[in-house]
Amino acid sequence: MPLSATYRVENGQLIGARQIASPNYNQRPESAEIQLIVVHNISLPPSQFGGGYIEQFFQNQLDWSLHPYFQTIEGMQVSAHLLILRTGEVIQFVNFHDRAWHAGRSSYLAQVECNDYSIGIELEGSDDLPFEEIQYQALAKITAVLQQSYPKIQQHIAGHSDIARGRKTDPGSFFQWPYFRQLLNAKKM
Ligand SMILES: [Zn+2]
């Protein structure tokens, strides 16, 4: 099903994605316009996939006692607009009109606070493992749709490590930027 999924944006919602509401968001500053996509990876516990823990984490419903790693992130309130699972399924947690909490202290082309003006997309993955082909397909499809809906994004697509240098490493060296760009360009032809 995810392979054939088509997406479109309506009122800040990605139609075609599963919707799960995260409480971890606030308003974008009034002057802020969406002009950047930030690509991340996340897995809970690290490098383990499935289990639904990321979804629980973004809803502040993760049981911290289930795994020693969870205790190291206990109480953190974070979110991303979108999560792309290993299966290619896409989940939206925060409306694009709202400010999700994914970037932290950050800057892109000398503009600080990337959360104010970006859309955060998490790939279920880790810095140590290749991503799934179906995740690249979904990411390219969604990016093309977002570029159309929010034209200021243009080619402004960055990794978390690019906007928080020295602090963050994701999406990591296994994320194939050239391949992703190639898929994205093919979508626009
Ligand atoms: Zn990140």
TrEMBL record:
Cofactor requirements of the protein: Zn(2+)
Annotated GO CC locations: cytoplasm
Gene3D superfamilies named in the record: Peptidoglycan recognition protein-like (3.40.80.10)
Keywords linked to the UniProt accession: Cell wall biogenesis/degradation, Cytoplasm, Hydrolase, Metal-binding, Zinc
Gene Ontology BP terms: cell wall organization; peptidoglycan catabolic process; peptidoglycan turnover
Domain (N-acetylmuramoyl-L-alanine amidase): residue spans on this chain: 22-172
EC number annotated for this UniProt entry: 3.5.1.28
Compartment list: Cytoplasm
GO molecular function: metal ion binding; N-acetylmuramoyl-L-alanine amidase activity
One Pfam family cited in the UniProt record for this chain: Amidase_2
Reactions catalysed according to its record: Hydrolyzes the link between N-acetylmuramoyl residues and L-amino acid residues in certain cell-wall glycopeptides
PANTHER family according to UniProt: 1,6-ANHYDRO-N-ACETYLMURAMYL-L-ALANINE AMIDASE AMPD (PTHR30417:SF4), N-ACETYLMURAMOYL-L-ALANINE AMIDASE AMID (PTHR30417)
Family of this protein: Belongs to the N-acetylmuramoyl-L-alanine amidase 2 family.
The protein's name: 1,6-anhydro-N-acetylmuramyl-L-alanine amidase AmpD
